[in-house]
């Protein structure tokens, strides 16, 4: 009997210890650094005559820096926080619309606290990257190193309060109220944006109602086999009072040929109206479109990823790019070699 009681007590102590271990709070530090080489194949490569795709990041000539990214997170039993800091050109571009402090050294990419109200509801308050789109700011989470027009023209970040709700094993819902898009430090306008996301088995329908525009976005993907994945992104944005618009769709087929190498393609068609952005500036009416194909290889060596990339942008308007003779051109071909280390 004494042996049985002793064994029972040991068993109970082990269970309680395991439960304490599972519930114990944790602090972690992760992040990445990235650098790259970029060269135009049919256009000048000096800074005075430089031309590049009208998309974000990876647009500088020669050997160039991306960013250093440090993410600190704390996860408690019911609450936690994330502090995501960025340093370097890519980081500066990511916080471009910060209204006051970006010019004087703002390095905050994300900064938020969260509360797990229940097993199915989490409340988050602070600055968080956008829920729209297939691509993100961090190069570690994108397959292609250069970014799409859809990502570049869409929102980057929001500051506000959101609720993530698990409706069932398959369905999820996010509802949020936020400052104007990309105004991340405080609210200088007094206006607010509203966002919603409905998820089903990895497919997401996103909606953003900003004081100045409305955007609808679909983001998803399918594992067509153990080695072949197809990602999808489609979006449409309309600015109030005829202030411009864009519509686009991008497909991301990716094939893993080995444990260390994957090859992928991004095919994107993007069009804008009423001088909304970079490509429309070349048309008298501000209407233009571009078809961009990006072929990327991804070679993993421990925590280091090497990505050679060939990109072809073909626009509807002369003057979107410049050729080697410094004449207006509709097309641009470029090569990128990126090195990304994550920790």
From TrEMBL:
Q: Which InterPro entries match?
A: BBP2 (IPR011486)
A Pfam family in this protein?
A: BBP2
Question: Span of the secretion signal?
Answer: 1-18
Q: Looking at the record's lineage, which domain of life comes first?
A: Bacteria
Please provide the record's keywords in A-Z order: Signal
Protein known as: Outer membrane beta-barrel protein
Q: Record the organism.
A: Thalassobellus suaedae
């Amino acid at each position: 009997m004494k042996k049985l009681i002793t064994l029972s007590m040991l068993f109970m102590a082990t269970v309680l210890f395991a439960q304490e271990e599972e519930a114990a709070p944790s602090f972690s530090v992760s992040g990445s650094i990235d650098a790259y080489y970029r060269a135009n194949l049919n256009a000048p490569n000096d800074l005075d005559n430089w031309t590049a795709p009208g998309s974000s990041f990876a647009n500088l000539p020669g050997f160039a820096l991306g960013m250093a990214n440090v993410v600190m997170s704390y996860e408690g039993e019911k609450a936690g926080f994330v502090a995501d800091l960025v340093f370097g050109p890519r980081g500066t571009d990511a916080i471009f619309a910060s209204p006051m402090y970006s010019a004087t050294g703002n390095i905050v990419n994300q900064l938020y606290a969260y509360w797990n109200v229940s097993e199915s509801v989490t409340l988050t308050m602070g600055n968080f990257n956008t829920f729209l789109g297939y691509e993100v700011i961090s190069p570690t989470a994108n397959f292609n190193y250069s970014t799409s027009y859809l990502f570049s023209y869409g929102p980057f970040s929001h500051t506000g309060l959101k609720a993530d709700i698990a409706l069932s094993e398959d369905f999820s819902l996010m509802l949020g109220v936020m400052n104007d898009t990309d105004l991340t430090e405080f609210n200088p306008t007094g206006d607010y944006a509203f966002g919603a996301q409905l998820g089903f088995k990895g497919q997401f329908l996103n909606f953003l109602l900003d004081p100045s525009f409305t955007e609808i976005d679909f983001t998803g993907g399918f594992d067509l086999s153990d080695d072949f994945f197809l990602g999808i992104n489609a979006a449409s944005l309309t600015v109030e009072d005829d202030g411009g618009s864009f519509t686009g769709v991008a497909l991301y087929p990716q094939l893993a040929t080995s444990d260390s190498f994957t090859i992928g393609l991004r095919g994107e068609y993007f069009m804008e109206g009423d001088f909304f952005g970079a490509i429309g500036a070349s048309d008298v009416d501000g209407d233009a479109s571009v078809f961009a194909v990006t072929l990327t290889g991804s070679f993993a060596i421990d925590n280091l990823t090497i990505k050679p990339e060939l990109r072809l942008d073909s626009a509807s308007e002369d003057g979107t790019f410049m050729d080697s003779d410094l004449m207006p051109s509709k097309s641009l071909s470029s090569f990128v070699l990126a090195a990304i280390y994550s920790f």
